Automatic annotation (TrEMBL):
This is Integrase catalytic domain-containing protein. It comes from uncultured prokaryote. Residues 175-342 form the Integrase catalytic domain. GO terms for molecular function: nucleic acid binding; transposase activity. GO terms for biological process: DNA integration; transposition. InterPro entries: Integrase_cat-core, RNaseH-like_sf, RNaseH_sf, Transposase-Integrase, Transposase_IS30-like. NCBIfam families: transpos_IS30.
Amino acid sequence: MDYPNHITNHEKGKHLSYEDYVIIELRLKDGWKPNAIAKKELHCAANTVRNIIKKGMTPLYNGKVFRIKAKTAWKAYQENRSHSCRTYEALEKRPFLQYVERHFQEDQWSLDACVGRALEEGRFDRSEILRTKTLYNYVDLGLLNIKNIDLPQKLSRNTKIHKDKENKRVLGRSIEERPKEVDTREEFGHWETDLVIGQKSGKDEVLLTLLERKTRDFSIIRLPDKSADSVFDAFQKMQSELGDYFSKVFRTITTDNGSEFARLAELETGTSTKVYFTHPYTSCEKGSIENHNGLIRRFIPKGKRIADYGEDDILAVELWANSLPRKILGYKTPDEAFEAEMDKIYAA
C-alpha cells in the first residue's frame, strides 16, 4: 500500500521525528525492507532505520510475538536523549578548582601542572579532579576564574617564513657532530645556552641563560654586556666553583653562532666538555632554551631595560621557573630533578 499524499522532508544530520517513526512502522507492515524505507522515504542511513526497529520491538501475546511499535521506539529514544546532555562538575569539584585557580594565579602554574602536581602529592583523589582538557574547556565556558588571555601559550602565533642566508660564520664544532644520546635527554649534563637582551641600545645589561636538557633546570646569570669576554668569564666562574666536577655537570654545551659565544669553544681546553654550535639562523635546534627564554619575557618584556630590574627580581624568575611541576618529569619540579642528579655526581 502506497501513501501518495505523504511527503517527508527529513534534513540530513537531524534526528528523526515521531512522525518518521510512525512511517517506519507503517512501511514495515506493508512489507518494505529497512533499506527501502531509508532510501525512498526518510533519506537517511539504513542502519538508522534498523536501530529504530530494534528499539521498537514490542512483545505481544504474552511474549510469543514481537512487532515494531513507533511509541515504544520513540520512548526509548527520549530516554536516551535525557542522558545525553553534557554535565559539568564545577560545584562538586570546587575544592580542586580553587586549588587550580590559586596555583595558576599565585604561582603561574599551567593547568596541566596543577592536575599532575595534585595527583603527585596526593592532595586529591583521582575521582576529585578534572582532566587537563576539561579545565581548558571550563576556561572557555567561563566556569573558572581564568580567562583565555591569561594563558600565554594560547595566544595567536605568527609562523615566520624561513629564509636561508649565506656567509654566516660558524664558531666551532657543528651540532651535526653532537652525540645522538644528547637528543634522547636520558643522560644528565647536556646544556643549551643563550642570551636575553633588554634594550637594544648597546648600553644595557644582558641575561645569560642556561638549561640542562634532562632535568629542565634553568639558570639565569646577569652580565654587564653581551661581549664574548663577559660570557666566557661567567663560564669560567662556574668552572672554578665546580672544580673537577665541571666536566661531569657540563658534558656538552649547545649554543648559536652569535658573536657573544665566540670564545665558548675555549672551555674545551683542559676539560672533557664539548661545545657545539647550531646551524646559522636555526634557533629551533636549541628549542628548549628558547622556550624558557619566553618564560622570562612574561616578567621582562622585550625593550625593557634589564638594568632596571634588581637581583632579587631576576632570582625570583629563576626560582619560579625551576619550581614549575613538569609533565615530562612526572610532575616533579626541575629543581627536584636537578638536585637528585647532582647528588649522584657528588656521591660517585
